[in-house]
Automatic annotation (TrEMBL):
It comes from Sorghum bicolor (Sorghum). Pfam families: Exostosin_GT47. It is found in: Golgi apparatus membrane. This is Exostosin GT47 domain-containing protein. One of its GO terms (molecular function) is glycosyltransferase activity. Belongs to the glycosyltransferase 47 family. Residues 73-369 form the Exostosin GT47 domain. GO terms for cellular component: Golgi membrane. The keyword Glycosyltransferase applies.
Length: 429
């Protein structure tokens, strides 16, 4: 039997054939990738706002005083030129608008207009200042500042800024600065319970607020990026007593202001949490305490004669007495639990003031006597430092070391912190 006819074996594929096959697949893959890239680039970008840190410049900033006395600060702020109905018209209607305890909104605006670091072009700015005066309508029948118009006026200003320029939209306002210089700051209502219920306007929750209100711990009205600033006192007060160490201080403890025996406010709570009432009850007949309930236009002359100036809370924890006391060399005695005070890194409040708990009113005389017997001289020496007194005054134009200068310093810190968060986030990714 013959062997079967051998089958022709298939030839192995050549190298050239393999290359042709793989080249075709590679070309198809490249064509698909290019088509996908072109499709994605044509799609509109997501409209999500940038985070606070994503638009900040990486250039380091430093506030410093030059030998000529001018502020050398690369912090660049663009000041919006809003229609007069948002600011100038209010100031023109009432001269007190630029002088009362809430006038920081006017003082900061005017100081920034003359600020050497003001950005002429918005594209060069680190921050944007929105000058809206909401506290100018000061006089009302019940004595409260009228803030019923505040939210509407601010919302209108924000809408205007959104339409005119793209800078609000790119960050949802995170690099925009406002002033909230009244009792409960960013909540824009003079009564705490209503302020808490209303909360911070939604359109401002990403912005930076300069506000006199500040407390330790949680509070609805400070749940926004903010800087605690001092209440406004007319700058000339700083010059009424240029050498407080030479003043004759024949008053031991001084207070002049509202101090009713039955001081219920419209919300049903006791005014000043009854602290002022208890002051009157405990020390109204004590000859060491100079307590007066009636107004007196020249009351600052009494402060200049006093060793201790009592600064109890009123509707809110803070009071202009705090600034007036420091300027006039009278040791402020702060009676407001959990208060946060402005510019603590510069002023070092424990060295220039006393804090007495609200529950310890009955022991106040003993506390003050102890200070007189121990460290009175050291506190006065710290308090009379011109650098500390200047830090609480809003000068126009701004001066190195004054309150507006300190605000810029605090804003610089916020910017640098945001940059650090950005770098840490990038490193962790």
């Amino acid at each position: 039997m013959r062997d079967p006819k051998p089958r022709r074996s298939q030839a192995a594929p050549t190298l050239a054939a393999k290359l042709r096959k793989h080249s075709t697949c590679l070309l198809l893959l490249l064509w698909f990738a290019l088509s996908l890239c072109l499709f994605l680039s044509a799609a509109p970008p997501a409209a999500a706002p940038l985070s606070r840190s994503s638009f900040l410049r990486s250039k380091p900033r430093a506030l410093a005083a030059t030998t000529t006395g001018a502020a050398a600060s690369p912090v660049r702020i663009y000041v919006y030129d809003l229609p007069a109905r948002f600011n100038r018209d209010w100031a023109a209607a009432d001269a007190r608008c630029a002088r009362h305890l809430f006038a920081a909104e006017v003082a900061v605006h005017e100081a920034l207009l003359a600020y050497a670091g003001r950005a002429a072009r918005p594209e060069d700015a680190d921050l944007f200042f929105v000058p809206v005066y909401v506290s100018c309508n000061f006089s009302t029948p019940n004595g409260f500042p009228s803030l019923s118009h505040a939210r509407g006026l601010l919302a209108e200003a924000v809408d205007l800024v959104r339409v005119r320029m793209p800078y609000w939209n790119r960050s949802a306002g995170a690099d925009h600065v406002f002033v909230a210089s009244h009792d409960f700051g960013a909540c824009f209502h003079p009564m705490e319970d209503v302020a808490i219920a209303d909360g911070i306007p939604e359109f401002l929750k990403r912005s930076i607020l300069l506000q006199t209100f500040g407390v330790q711990g949680h509070h609805v009205c400070q749940e926004v990026e903010h800087v605690v600033i001092p209440p406004h006192v007319p700058p000339e007060v700083a010059h009424e007593l240029p050498e407080p160490e030479k003043a004759q201080r024949d008053i031991f403890a001084f207070f002049r202001g509202k101090m009713e025996v039955h001081p219920k406010n419209i919300s049903g709570r006791f005014y000043s949490k009854k602290v002022r009432t208890e002051l009157l009850q405990h020390y109204g007949r004590n000859r060491k305490f100079y307590l007066k309930r009636k107004r007196f236009d020249n009351y600052r002359s009494e402060m200049a004669r006093s060793l201790f100036c009592l600064c109890p809370l009123g509707w809110a924890p803070w009071s202009p007495r705090l600034v007036e006391s420091v300027l006039l060399g009278c040791i402020p005695v702060i009676i407001a639990d959990n208060i946060r005070l402005p510019f603590p890194s510069v002023l070092q409040w424990p060295e220039i003031s006393l804090q007495v708990a609200e529950k310890d009113i009955a022991n106040l005389e003993m506390v003050l006597d102890h200070v007189v017997a121990t460290n009175l001289t050291m506190i006065q020496k710290n308090l009379w430092d011109p650098v500390k007194r200047k830090a609480l005054v809003f000068n126009r134009p701004m001066e190195v070391g004054d309150a507006t200068w300190q605000v810029l310093r605090e804003l610089e810190v916020l910017l640098d912190q945001s940059q650090r968060r950005r770098y840490v986030g990038s490193w962790r990714r």
